[in-house]
């Protein structure tokens, strides 16, 4: 599964999946997308996805919540680490997803583990499509991920009308959840959203760009070592981002913020192909 960014921050975002897969404990099983709802996709060494989930005594696809992963949550190793630490089953269907009107930038804050994470931004005028990962989380998993992301991120609901979303099967989802950064994203020297790079390269570039950051951190390794241990340094770096004029707010995404206490939509709710009692 690769490195766990929570344990090795410079490996962020980890080994992100590139093809449909089922995270099943410490295994990543390949899936084959096909016409029809995700529950009918084939799983390596098994049957349909919903049949495989049933054999694992886990909720089927139709009862799971569609959540877009931008950074390390798209890496099975990180997701496995997060869920098992909370004694939750690390069984999660994952698949690439293309989203129009969305870009992938760099967070305008320093994460608890010391890295500077990938973060989405609204990009309505772009003809490019963001390639992200859709995870289908059960209710307990969604609450757990909420706990790891809020309040630094806000769970928002993207509409498929405003942000067209297409699965590898060609299915267009009507909506999906996304964690938008409350702090905004970082701008490059040209004023546009900064493009993510490998974490050591990104941190080195930020240090090169700011003498004030170099007063806090000597190198990328020094950055993550100190920042993960000291919330004051994380706050100081965030303040430097703001005072340097690097921050692009994400009001367009945040206006779609969800109340975590309300019932979340399921794959059945957002898939035009699924039914409430889909079963192989």
Unreliable segments of 5+ consecutive residues: 276-280
The average pLDDT is: 94
Helix content: 25-40%
Query: How many β strands by DSSP?
Result: 14
| Euclidean distance between termini CA atoms | 29 Å
Tally the helices: what do you get? 9
Give helix and strand order, one letter per element, not per position: EEEHEHEEEEHEEEEEHHHHEHH
What class, by secondary structure content?
alpha+beta
Cα radius of gyration in angstroms: 19 Å
Give a written overview of the molecule.
The chain is α+β, with helices and mostly antiparallel strands and 280 residues long. The chain has nine helices and 14 strands. Strands 1, 2, 3, 4, 5, 8, 9, 10, 11 and 12 form a ten-stranded mixed beta sheet that branches. The protein has a two-stranded antiparallel ribbon with strand order 6-7. A hairpin with a 2-residue loop joins strand 1 and strand 2. Helix 6 packs across helix 7. The longest helix has 13 residues. The chain is globular.
How do the helices and strands line up, and which of them pair or pack?
Layout: E1 21-24, E2 27-32, E3 42-43, H1 49-55, E4 65-69, H2 76-85, E5 91-100, E6 102-106, E7 118-122, E8 129-137, H3 139-149, E9 153-159, E10 165-166, E11 172-173, E12 175-181, E13 185-186, H4 199-209, H5 211-216, H6 220-229, H7 231-243, E14 247-248, H8 251-254, H9 267-270
Parallel strand pairs: 4-12
Antiparallel strand pairs: 1-2, 1-5, 2-3, 4-8, 5-8, 5-10, 6-7, 9-12, 10-11, 13-14
Helix pairs in contact: 6-7
